[in-house]
Give the backbone structure.
Amino acid sequence: MAYGDLVSRVDFDMNRDSPFSYACHACNRCCRNKAIRVNPYEILRLARYLGITTTQFIENHTEAGGTVLRPKENGDCGFLGERGCGVHPDRPLACRLYPLARWVTPDGNESFGHLTPHPRTEGVYGRSGTVQDYLEHQQLGPFFEISERYGKLYQKMVDMLEKLDPEELDRRSDRRAAIDELPPGKLASMWVDIDASVADAGGIRGLGQETIEQELDGHIRRIEAWLISIEE
């Protein structure tokens, strides 16, 4: 399926010192008809919250090659229940950041903007705090840090592909479209699945034996080692 780009319609005119506040009144209207992109870290957190492997989570709860949370047939988030979000303590970055969007330029300049609210939202917008206050309240620090780490790895992979095949850049939009059309639960890349990546390397991991941070570090180190082996 085709996924709309909400960020393309955002005016990124705020920074961390900008006046901003938002009080969620749990109307759940923001949990409908959205494409929630997730990275391996977010998948790992959600899987561990549910007590399952990342492989099982991807198969049961994602689409677009394991990069988007699979919605219900009516468009609701797959984790939206009668009492609201069923995975709230480990909800993804996009859900924590809402109703803001974040943009970081290639040279590291950061800005924020407002996503268009649902016309009947019960959320209350204000200026009693700052963007930074909101980010801290939503505990977004680790999500930004890890997104940056994976972003650097992704760029290294892209650079490697372009080095091996100069025409790779021209194919990227077609590859992205093909990934979005993959059947639900089917992976676009083995690297999305942390548990499967470890098993493929001969490792054995039981749920809960390592912290999420330890599992994440091991995953990133393995990707980095793979990239080095290709360069050699």
About this structure: The CA atoms of residues 54 and 193 lie 6 Å apart. The chain has one domain: 6-188. Helices lie at 40-50, 54-61, 93-97, 131-137, 141-164, 168-180, 194-200, 212-231.
